[in-house]
Design a protein that fits this description.
The complex is a heterotetramer, with two copies of chain A and two copies of chain B. In chain A, strands 2-1-5-3-4 form a five-stranded mixed sheet. Chain A is an alpha+beta fold. Chain A has two helices and five strands; from the N terminus they run E-H-E-H-E-E-E. Chain B is elongated. The model of chain B has no long low-confidence stretch (mean pLDDT about 95). Chain B is an alpha+beta fold. Classes of the chains: A alpha+beta, B alpha+beta. Chains in contact: A-B, B-C, C-D. Strand 2 of chain B pairs antiparallel with strand 2 of chain C.
């Protein structure tokens, strides 16, 4: 299963990319699976607070993913 | 309720909003403008930089407007948020709400800015003389 | 908090207020404008006429500002109230509040208009096609 | 004892004057005394709601008056 992952603000800066494609996700992958993969590639992300969105809506970490989903990791927002 | 939302890299024309929302059936117009402060948590700020997850910002604003529509009886609502560089003293966000009665105009204006600060995926970077920080104090 | 109050017979320049109150130490400006509505309690309004007990208005505004100063941390506050004839669509009152943080700007703005409507000795006469009435619906 | 009385909005219109001087008030006169005198001169005022102010501040109806006070009868306010 393939998903697109988007990163923002401090997460984006630490990871060094604003978007990546994850190709070989298992069929039961969740948002937390994605986060764990990113942390294994970039240990600097560990402990950073982040909410998650799938296809432009907030989701809990145990949300199961589907082929083609757009997953976003969102540090605490500070707009306004 | 007729609501519009704009994300822009240009300077926000704060004074233009209120006259645009009012009609002769409105008795009240409430506005809120958030501006870039010179000082944050005791440090001197040089400028702000805002980053947005634009398609989700639009989706989230649609949800926030739908919720406001259920809670308040208002006429026209406009929200403009700036992204990119915002110099000190300029507006990062402007909200204008017109309504027949003041409680709805004031209540909706406050509800909108509170919800926007809570859930809309936009991030502020404060740039100081000796570094930068995401978020900062979010009040 | 630096507060000013003006009673005027002239049209209020609504857009001028917000830029006048903001400084670089403020992160928020809230405004409220009350306007003359075309319709009141189902009847068509031709115009409004406001009467004021002027020296007591000033005394009462001083009390209201002192109270706001105790409750909110705000920068500059301006309140302008029009008296005499107010045509439909024009402002009878405009309030602008600047503050470092949004909760103070929004809270003070709402507190001011609520207190003004409650205690400041000003009266509105609604002139209809077939008569006139003092007060009307006061929301 | 003499006091000045000011009337506003609907009270002013019904009474037909915005200001009157009351000259021969007894020494123990209160705001309610003033109101009763006005109602005896203009029965149309009876039953109209009105707060009272003395020297530019709200006072209760049993407030005792002093020589030279400015008394105001204030219908429910509707500014803003």
């Amino acid at each position: 299963m393939q998903v697109r992952v988007r990163l923002f603000a401090g997460l984006r800066e630490r990871f060094g990319a604003e978007e990546i494609l994850l190709d070989d996700l298992p069929g039961d992958a969740t948002v937390s699976t994605v986060r764990a993969i990113l942390e294994s590639r970039c240990p600097d992300l560990r402990g950073l607070p982040a909410a998650a969105a799938v296809n432009l809506a907030y989701v809990p970490g145990d949300r199961r993913l589907e082929e083609g989903d757009e997953v976003a990791l969102l540090p605490p927002v500070s707009g306004g | 309720m007729n609501a519009s939302f704009v994300l822009t890299r240009a300077r926000i024309d704060v004074g233009a909003l209120a006259p645009e929302v009012r009609t002769d059936e409105d008795g009240a117009v409430a506005t809120f403008v958030g501006t870039a402060r010179r000082t944050s948590q005791g440090r001197r700020v040089l400028r702000l930089e805002y980053e947005a997850y634009e398609p989700m910002v639009r989706a989230e604003m649609a949800r926030i407007f739908a919720d406001a529509r259920d809670r308040f009886r208002v006429g026209e609502v406009r929200v403009v948020h700036r992204v990119g560089l915002v110099p000190i003293g300029e507006a990062s966000i402007a909200i204008a709400v017109a309504a027949p009665h003041r409680a709805d105009a004031l209540g909706a204006c406050r509800h909108l800015i509170d919800r926007i600060k809570e859930t809309v995926p936009i991030w502020k970077k404060e740039v100081f003389e000796d570094g930068a920080a995401w978020g900062g104090d979010r009040s």
